[in-house]
Amino acid sequence: MPEDKAVTQPSVRELRRGIRAGETSALESVERSLAAIDALDAGLHSFIWVDRDAARAEARRVDAELAAGRDLPLAGVTVGVKDNIDVGGRVTQAGSRVLAGRVPTEDATVVARLRAAGAVVVGSTNMHEFALGGTSENPHFGTVNNPLGAGLSPGGSSGGSAAAVAAGLTMVALGTDTCGSIRMPASLTGTVGMRPTAWTVPLHGVVPLALSMDTAGPMTRTIGDNVEILQVLSGRTLRRPRAARVRLLTHRLDDVANAVRETMAEVVDNLRGRVRLDRDADTGWVPESVDVAVTTFLREAADLHEVWLRERPDEYGADVRGSLEQGTLISRDDYLNAAARRFELAHRARRGLGPDGILVLPVFPFTRVTQYTDTVETAPGSFEDRDAAMLRYISAAAVTGLPALSVPGGHDPDGLPIGVQLIGAPGTEAELYGLARLIVAGNALDDAHDGEDVS
């Protein structure tokens, strides 16, 4: 689907103003999303199911509550929910045949919080099976296509959520991030994705992959919308960013695409005078996190799937089954050694960041993932294993439990987005959003809805 065919959705604040002024309604917002899905999703495969009747009924209920004087800050905001996050009364199966027919009796906490604020769930978004992969090539529900170009992967595992938001099918979406599954598709689709500080967003009702690394978070078109959704998911209002100037940590970039290197240099250059550059801080924990991440999530995933993998192996897609089988080969000692390394790496990361540091990294060393291929071009003429290259920069936050935000920072010569990743100390989401706004403004990217500070 060409990018210029994407549907323009209002921001959360624009919709709220329109509803309060009597210019629109929750039902009109839902109808806009349903029409967009009908027009575009056959070519994207971003949804597994869409419940039109339930969405319309929910929108009418929201409009009735507004008419009765209730304040609903997300009234009419349309949401796509990743298929590993429970929607009560509807099949939620983590993109897998293994969980076919699984119908939870209640919403996941994050879904319940969005609905309590007036948001409307329109459907369940497609994903890489069991969130164990970075392409969203799903053998059961179809491969998710990137709305930015034919043959391009949107990344994963939250690829359906990213594609739905990028194409304007919904205003926002929910994703999960065990080891990059929000940030990776956000980068490849030019959207905004937040992996929040570990344990700050409740995971009740989320199908687990690796319990010690799993998180859930928002995927949106703009930074402002991301702030709005995270506040509801976490149940807390983000404080204003600290007044002190941010100390910006940089990391040496080896074997990256020219466009990635140029984008990162431009981002840092545009921030001069607004941040204190620190090129000497220890960032060795970034590359050292990769092996620890792989050992941890593969072993934890294999443990969770032990019975199903033994009794129903043919119900898994081949790639996911292979990853789980690889996880069964990881010894207890190797897993415990990785756990000890995680503690050490988290300590080093927090010491290096301190209270005022933010590390700026690319999400990827490349700018595109072509569907059904297992290599990517990093340095010019240099091709690497796709999965290994994907993990290079996104593992660090997953291993250390730190908040990490992916925001569009520039484009490659073909116009494809390049995601910039910001990693901060625990609880510094407000600072990450504040710095992201400077990056977006400095690169003249379209984020017109984001002029207000976090409050």
From TrEMBL:
Transmembrane segments: none annotated. One of its GO terms (molecular function) is catalytic activity. Gene3D superfamilies: Amidase signature (AS) domain. It holds the Pfam family Amidase. SUPFAM superfamilies: Amidase signature (AS) enzymes. It comes from the Bacteria. Residues 28-432 form the Amidase domain. This is Amidase.
